Amino acid sequence: MQAQDQTFWTRDTVTGDWGGARTRLSNNGIDWSLTYTGEVFGNLSGGIETGAAYEDLISLEVDTDLEKLMGWKGGTAHVSLYQIDDGGRNAADLVGSISDPSNIDARPTFRLFTLWVQQQLGDTGSFRVGQLAADDEFLISDTAAALINGTFGWANIVAANLPGGGPGYPLATPGARLELDPSDESSGRPCSAAIRPETVHPMRTRKPADPHGTTFSFTGGALFMSEIQYRPGASAKDDGAQSAYRLGGWYHTADFADLELGNGNKGQRVSLAVDPSDPIEHQGNWGLYGVVDQVVWQNGASNITLFWRGSVVPADRNLLSWYMDGGFGITAPFRERPDDVLTFGVAYSNISPDASALDLATRRIAGSSYPIRNGETAFELSYTAQITPWWTLQPDLQYIVHPGGNVPDPDDPSHVIENSVLVGLRTTVAF
């Protein structure tokens, strides 16, 4: 359908083509999008407290074809800016879970997210440098991306273990990425990124070290990631869903404190429950992961895809020692709604046995029923309804077992945080 033939309800954006101005900009290499995402979540029971929270995100993204704009053959550029607001509290504040119920939760601020330039290397790959976000390309499942809980995007195994939560939303970092594509079906992505020295994730603190994303720090260690990807049949002219298999790993160069043991005043190793002042430092950190998106049924616009992700890391220096999630996505679950998606996911985050051992030592010393952390499980069922090409509504239901991994309730330390039931509704509008 031509832009001039589209009505308010059938065009791609609320504001349309601006009398042809958007098309002219695109023809000259500049494409931009402005998207509003707003949601309300209600914690019906359990968690830290019952109640409701509202949060929203306004994102501006500009993609530039530098060959069209200035004759730079194979060159592209990208920038994204965020305005984040949570009305004073977010869903994570209500629940107290490791798995953040919302993947847009963050400190209220206006911030730069990503900023990079890329050079296409013929048909063999590309090289990208600038402020990068690892969750744009690494450790992601195409199917799970339709869910709202943050762990189904930048998984808990990295968000809870890396300094500052790692280079995932809303914290991108300076770095470089090389992608090699030996065939249409397979690709490899080595990436390195500097990590700024934030030890608390921005979504968990009101005073981050880099509130606007413009520090561009190269201190605090570096993160190296690598991933190989295989998409069978990707070379075929098929607009339907495709299966994908990913295998990757990462290494971080910083020092990481031991979760259970420290150095005593005589040089001996002691439990941190006895003397938490001098933990043992481990050089470096690493992780391995795999991701599968498998199409199991397809008929025209309708398809059913299963997803699975798993990851392991060293237990002595990471809060989570292993992680697994899985589920399914159904595209066009109803014949008359070809653009809707129904998605279900379950994620398990296993607390490191070293962290559990510290809890056991604390219990022995305190002589009380101090809880022993074990793990957290998050269930989510979500339906994305495409109301118009520019507007979606997404009702969402989540159930989180042992929020925080079985930790004391901050309002009543004699009890652990109870299982949480949340309902939410998200709306997304493209301007």
UniProtKB/TrEMBL annotation:
<protein>
    <submittedName>
        <fullName>Uncharacterized protein</fullName>
    </submittedName>
</protein>
<dbReference type="InterPro" id="IPR007049">
    <property type="entry name" value="Carb-sel_porin_OprB"/>
</dbReference>
<comment type="similarity">
    <text>Belongs to the OprB family.</text>
</comment>
<dbReference type="GO" id="GO:0016020">
    <property type="term" value="C:membrane"/>
</dbReference>
<dbReference type="GO" id="GO:0008643">
    <property type="term" value="P:carbohydrate transport"/>
</dbReference>
<dbReference type="InterPro" id="IPR052932">
    <property type="entry name" value="OprB_Porin"/>
</dbReference>
<dbReference type="GO" id="GO:0015288">
    <property type="term" value="F:porin activity"/>
</dbReference>
<dbReference type="Pfam" id="PF04966">
    <property type="entry name" value="OprB"/>
</dbReference>
<dbReference type="InterPro" id="IPR038673">
    <property type="entry name" value="OprB_sf"/>
</dbReference>
